[in-house]
Amino acid sequence: MVQATPFLLVLFLALGAHGLSAKKCNLTGSWKNDLGSNMTIRSVNANGVFDGTYHTAVTATSNEIKVSPLQGSQQRGPNQKGQPTFGFTVNWSFSDSITVFTGQCFVDDDGKEVLKTMWLLRSRVENIKSDWKATR
Questions:
Q1: Domain count, the chain
Q2: Out of 41, 47, 97, 116, which residue is the most buried by the measure of CB atoms under 10 Å away?
Q3: What is the separation of C-alpha 102 from the centre of its chain, rounded to a whole number of angstroms?
């Protein structure tokens, strides 16, 4: 049993170190994407709910771009491992459209927090016959 003790200690330290080095990503703060859009997420509450603002650098309208409000939710619970999934909605202040985003917050190998998202934009159309062109 004396010979097994060092092995168990090394195994325990290796497993424990893995748990201690778990990378945690925090959504709160300012974010900028590759196209120059800026997003600010205020604090995420205990239920995972958050709000903030989004200032897009890209638009399909000729209207003046304005900062727009966002509301979202981060996955919480026993399965949350530190690189959470999330979703949020931006209600554009300068157009008749809304965009929903869903994604995950990662910590890369250099320790940098990165958001990876997908989005759908729904524009208002005049009638149901134009529905096919309302979502991008």
A1: 1
A2: 41
A3: 7
Q: Are 48 and 76 in contact (CB under 8 A)?
A: yes
In a domain, 60, yes or no: yes
pLDDT in tens, 99-124: 999 999 999 999 999 999 999 999 99
SS3 25: coil
53, 104, 116 from 45: Cα distances, Å: 16, 17, 21
Looking up residue 55, the CATH number of its domain turns out to be: 2.40.128.30
Question: Is 121 among the domain residues?
Answer: yes
Pairing between β-strand 113-123 and β-strand 29-32 as defined by DSSP bridges: unpaired
Q: Do the Cβ atoms of 40 and 52 come closer than 8 Å?
A: yes
Give residue 77's domain range. 29-133
Q: What percentage of the chain exceeds 90 in pLDDT?
A: 68
Q: Report the pLDDT value the prediction gives residue 18, as an integer from 0 to 100.
A: 44
